[in-house]
């Protein structure tokens, strides 16, 4: 009996190991033609770039549907996010949900014990963001908050709300917005409430007047 039980346990463990080994990596890249705008040393940032473009697509689709203006859309999102007024389930596209599920597997990105944000401010990717933000004032503020363990969406959001338009050209600043004000918030969102039937409309930012 013991031998039979051991065989069952071994077979089950082998099956689980096989499933884990055969787990498919994320390969549903819809924005790869936009190229690599986030380039961090020693990091595979392909998924991070996809996440940024998926976020920007959702921002424009949701906030720009009546007035396709990228600056205005960013303004509305940033102000709503800093003040915790974003309706993420209404905003999310099915593709972005898939991207988030892939991002969740990157343990280095997240800090589940942080009460202010689930984003890991000490991760290599966040350091890359802090090193490459173009505006000196925002860069200094962000890195000072991180170094003193004071970083939070609310504290950095205050100066960001007056400089949100910089994120249109500075994709590292845009990445901060995407990962701290969007993806990190999704851990507290019931993703089963997202309408998975709606089309994930692709927006070409190059054709949108600023």
Helix and strand arrangement:
Elements: H1 2-21, H2 46-63, H3 70-82, H4 88-91, H5 94-103, H6 124-132, H7 136-147, H8 153-160, H9 171-183
What are the defining features of this structure?
210 residues, mainly alpha, 51% helix, globular, disordered N terminus, disordered C terminus
Description:
By secondary structure, this protein is mainly alpha-helical. 51% of the residues lie in helices and 0% in strands. The chain is built from 9 helices and no strands. The protein has helices spanning 2-21, 46-63, 70-82, 88-91, 94-103, 124-132, 136-147, 153-160, 171-183. Helix 2 (46-63) packs across helix 3 (70-82). The protein is globular, with a radius of gyration of 19 Å. The chain starts with a helix and ends in a 27-residue tail after the last helix. The relative contact order is 0.16. Residues 3-22 and 205-210 have low confidence and may be disordered.
How is this structure best summarized?
This protein has helices at 2-21, 46-63, 70-82, 88-91, 94-103, 124-132, 136-147, 153-160, 171-183. It is an all-alpha fold and 210 residues long.
CA distance, first residue to last residue: 73 Å
The percent range for helix content is 40-55%
Order of H and E elements:
HHHHHHHHH
As a whole number of angstroms, the C-alpha radius of gyration is: 19 Å
Mean pLDDT across residues: 86
Count every beta strand, where a strand is a DSSP E run of 2 or more residues: 0
Number of helices: 9
